[in-house]
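Worked problem 6 (solution included).
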Amino acid sequence: AELSWQPNPADRHQLDIFAKDSGQWLLSETVAGNSFSLQSLDNGSYEIHVAALDPRGMAGIPAIKPLNVDLKARPARLQSPEEDAKYPDDMPEFSWQFRGDNEVGRVEIATDENFSNVIATSEWAPDNTALPSRALQPGQYYWRVVTEAGGNSMAASKPRTLLIDGSLPPVDIISVNYLDQQVRIFWQSVESATDYRLQLSEEPGFDNIIKEATVSDTTAALRLIPGRRYFVRLKALSEGPLTSRWGPGRELYLE
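Solution. The predicted structure is:
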């Protein structure tokens, strides 16, 4: 918003802004001319004091005017990437258009369309382009722009889907626990995986698979015959068109 007042012989003016309810002194500026741009006020009620300054810098009696700020954030208009875009880079650039006044925005990137699992954002800024806060692993994501105005009004755009091209990383087994005739294995989570394929073999080359299963968790229990050696390996699965690789095999042995 632009604040202006009637021209007068004074070259400079003293501008002071107070919160109406608390009387807190929020801003004090010496202004050349007869206008000032108000960019940083949150929603609320204020008093604007403007006084002319004489050549010695002494202020006259101020003019006082109430000001109510009631900004409303509006959903941004997304520009790029397009819906269902396939991106070869792990740091895509996002762009959008603001539709309200004095708005700031940030990108949110999630693995689900409800944005219950936001895995990357950008910084809040008045810019209309941004990079994510971290590199994105291959997989399908949802992205949107959240806008804020007046300190307490927020809006979110409709989400778009984005595919980061590539292959899912191999799955590493991180620990093995033995209990009686049962073995429980644990492996690292892969961000874009929906499930994991497990294979059990009596050979390190996995030429003869004796058990294969699809697991949605990052742990599984196996019942083994004591005195035999086994080998287990996993790979990540995705609903999208991403390829995946088997992780290294892990030897299992029950006394």
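Discussion: The longest strand covers residues 139-149.
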